[in-house]
Amino acid sequence: MEKRDLYKKEYEAQLDQYSEQLVILRGKVAGAQADMKVEYEEQLEKLEKKFSELKEKYSHISQASEEAWKDLQQGSEKAWHEFKSAFDKAIKHFQ
User: What is the pLDDT of residues 24-53, one digit of tens each?
Assistant: First the structure.
């Protein structure tokens, strides 16, 4: 399997995993006490925006030429790092 194909498969798996985790967080936000709900909703919106950006980057990587995908890979790695940091922070806050 080519490196690009492997990268895409791993990216898809991470998208699926975090998509499921966001569903769980949405459930926690829906069940939150009123005084915390607004703050949780704001954090969830930020996470969902970052997640949407990750899905867009995946789309670009999937459609990129062999040469261009390496440049896109670097940008997506940075975006993943930012998302994961924000996600971990939100998880700690929601607990």
Answer: 999 988 888 888 888 889 989 999 999 999
Strands (E), the chain: none
Q: Are 40 and 94 in contact (CB under 8 A)?
A: yes
Half-sphere exposure of residue 87: CA atoms within 13 angstroms, side-chain side: 23
In this structure, what token pair is assigned to residue 4? 């690009």
70/89: higher pLDDT: 89
pTM higher than the cut 0.70: yes
HSE-up (13 A, CA, CB side) for residue 32:
21
**Based on the number of CB atoms within 10 Å of its own CB, is 9 exposed (0-12), middle (13-18) or buried (19 or more)?**
exposed
Q: Report d(CA 26, CA 73) in Å as an integer.
A: 29
Q: Which of 62, 31, 56, 57 is closest to 44 using CA atoms?
A: 31
